[in-house]
Design a protein that fits this description.
Blueprint lengths: L4 E2 L2 H7 L1 H9 L6 E3 L6 E3 L5 E7 L4 E7 L6 E4 L2 H11 L12 E3 L6 E10 L2 E10 L15 H7 L3 E2 L14 E5 L2 E7 L8 E11 L2 H10 L1 E6 L11 H13 L4 E6 L4
Helix pairs in contact: 1-2
Amino acid sequence: MPRMLDVSDAVRAEIGDEEADRLLAGENAPGSYDCTSCRTPGDSEQERTSTVLFVGDETAVLAFAHASCLPSQVVQVTEEQLQGAVRSIDGVARETTAGTPQHSTPEQAVLGVTSGLVLIEGELHPALVVEPTTPIVRPGTTGAGDDFLPLLIEQGFLPVTELTSVPPVLHGWSVLLAMGQLHAVLQPSAAGGQPVAWWQAHQPLQVTDGWRSAANKHQQVLMFAAPVGSIGRQPREDLLRDSLDKSAVRGKLVGAALPLAGT
């Protein structure tokens, strides 16, 4: 039976016309599936379904998502991330509590990224809090100082003086939540074309069911950033919120709402 599948040109180019046509005809596509984004059941015979191809260094995995959660797309990941995604598909993914930081190593510094739910205007919003482990200076300059917040403001993030309203959406940036895990924060490419990773997890970051549910409900994630030493590793969401409030009052916080990747 034909499936209600979306196969993007990028996915078709990777898997080939024959395989894409077999999927659309229902030969190789499952009827029911667990959405690779929200992890809830889907049915490609009853609702629009996206094909999402995760491509690693040596292997690739084809997954399925509600079209309302993710568009059909090709996602470049490391081989380690892909193996983690395969374990997630097999149902071996582990959950961690909010407040568990995940680190990556960009050229300039190590960024600590913490996930948590933030209550704003009576509603819970999924948030990522980014704090470097060392001061970040403007590329090409030397000496003391910390240009982390000014650099983000130049990218469109806005100063946050109090957490009483949701910050505006920063178009062009996005958060890649796939296979129920956080993979990266994406920014526009300077050369145009596909977005590039501003931060990418060494291994997909596990998020709680509540965080993932809120992200799919709002179709966006709030990102807050503060200079080194402002937030710290907070083990609980109430402590994380307290640190955010204090950083905002001190003028040491910027933020934006980032759409889920591809939406």
